[in-house]
Design brief:
The protein is of the alpha+beta class. The chain is built from 3 helices and 4 strands; from the N terminus they run ββαββαα.
Length: about 130
């Protein structure tokens, strides 16, 4: 069991993994998987289980006692995935803020790049190294 929520481990396809992110879109998987594999991590991606749906309510009845038309079924849930790595010591927060991950073009992965707010990682000098 994890001490905090930043270091969660689960079995993904029978492989013990540390969870990097849950319920991510296919586009996010396409971003994370190559980035983590470039940093020598073995990545496991599995479909996330579908969200739990509330039990249907009893069929509505009109005033004259005939059953009312049933409401339309809800739209299907979007397909999401769970991303994990097999390195049990990996911690996403430590890897990003500890500047342990790098991009294929040689830059350090920043928080903005990880969150896909920037398309290019800009190496910033950490506050503790500024003079």
């Amino acid at each position: 069991m994890a001490i905090n929520s930043n270091h969660i481990s689960e079995d993904l396809d029978g492989i013990k993994c540390v969870i990097v992110e849950k319920n991510v879109s296919p586009e996010r998987v396409a971003f994370l998987k190559p980035l983590l594999e470039y940093n020598y991590l073995t990545v496991v991606v599995v479909p996330s289980p579908p969200a739990k749906v509330a039990a249907p309510a009893a069929a509505p009845v009109s005033e004259d006692g005939t059953p009312a038309p049933a409401p339309p079924p809800p739209p299907p849930a979007p397909e999401t995935f769970t991303v994990g790595v097999t390195n049990m010591l990996f911690n996403t927060t430590n890897a990003i803020y500890g500047r342990l991950l790098s991009t294929p073009d040689g830059h350090v992965v920043t928080a903005a790049y990880w969150q896909q707010k920037e398309s290019v990682s800009h190496d910033e000098v950490p506050y503790y190294e500024r003079k």
